[in-house]
Amino acid sequence: MRPSARTRRRTARGAAVAAVALVAGVLPGTGSQAQDSEATVRAAFTCAFPTGTQRVAAEISATFPASGTPGSPLRVSGLDVETVLSAKTLAEILPAGTTDVASEATLTVRVAQGTSDAEARWDGLKAPSTPVWDAADLTLAHRGEVPPVTVEHAGKVTFIVGALDLDLAPQGEPSAGPSTLPAKAPPAARCTPADERSPVLATVPVGDQEGSPRPSASPTPTGSAAPPGRDEGGQGDEDGRSARREAGIDVGDDPLPPAKPCESERPTAELDRSKLPEPPPGVTMVKLAGTHWCTVPVAVANVLKLRGGMAINDPADGATTANLLINVESGSNGTYNQTRSVGEVTLPDASATFLDFDLMPVTAKIEFTGTPMTIVTEQRGNTLPNYATIFMSQTLRMHDVAVNGTPLPVGPHCRTEKPVDIELHGVGPDEYHVFKGGVLRAELDIPAFTGCGTGGEDLDRLFTASISGSGNYMKLIQGKPCLMRPGGLGCALPPEVPELPR
């Protein structure tokens, strides 16, 4: 009987594999290599959605190396986090008219070796848009790449499932009317393992070439461990640490530190009506209660005379949050839509470096005293982009000034003689959306400085000549905001902390 084409291909492929294995076995010093192994574990999570707590089932799988060497990366591939949302849960968390749901997830994994451990955050796991059917459960398959793990010492390395963050993106049929901002927040949840002891995903021996990853099908006394943030007795860490590098364990790039806490009270600021665009005839702006959100804005201001950038609200230092009240006024006539929002933020001091008249390096701290933000979004037509504008002003005060490392007394009142007017612009929906965050830009005029100097010495001219003027540029990135739940519950997920703009 003549073999089929499929059989011939399979036989040829098998012969090629055998030949490669034979060559590998006879080459000096090569030795045999154990195969990587896929580990799979099922876990139950308790998820805090804005509408309440729900139980979510998940299946987590990934491919782990059979063994490792101290100082060499352990590469985890093929991460797949499948979450199952019950029909009952979907009915409670999804807005009416939802036809499809996409999702992004972050899985926290505790990497333990002996008495040491570190916390890895495997983020950016994306699930494609998946249809939602009436009275049916929904399975979302999140996939993505994760950074390698490196340990300095020999010993078994255990990967333990921790918290799971879900950020759902419901989609519905487009309406025939004008686009408006969503009235309901996209569902997001912080999920924690439902069982006291978290399931073990895999164990990889390092420095010992025997063994392979051992998947744990369910949390059992031998296949489970205390979740991240708990010791083996289930008690929380006293110092609350969530280290990425700890005692010889490196789980990837250091993450940005969490932002400062969100304000629990709604903003009380009023719109700056001098900045509000006049709507077209026939459009009446209606006052609304607004919804309470929290977000993280970070920025770089390129000051022309400094020939460099100044980081504002640097996320590496633990950025402060902005307190938003979105959609406090709205108006539409079918071809035009305008929404108005307010925000409050107290920016931390920034650091600046420049050269004086003698080309000596001058360093200084800059304090910001600002007004509330007035945020306006406009759309003309149903298919045209949204245009967002954020109005605010900031007075700059210089302090802790040093010339070539030597302190320079400037007094407590060295500031711009008037506020810097800031008008940030963003275009949506792809580049910026108040509910999704994104990039905004502004050109700045920095006023002259006044009140600088002590003991009769006038330093106004130095700072005015070195910093003040036009041609300055600001690029701001607003992270994805989180919805503040009533009753002091805060956000279900913390606000996104973006990196500084480039």
Automatic annotation (TrEMBL):
Residues 212-228 have a biased composition (Low complexity). Residues 170-283 are annotated as: Disordered. Keywords: Signal. This is DUF6801 domain-containing protein. Pfam families: DUF6801 (PF20611). The keyword Signal applies. Residues 1-34 form the signal peptide. It comes from the Bacteria. Residues 229-248, 262-276 have a biased composition (Basic and acidic residues). Residues 45-173 form the DUF6801 domain.
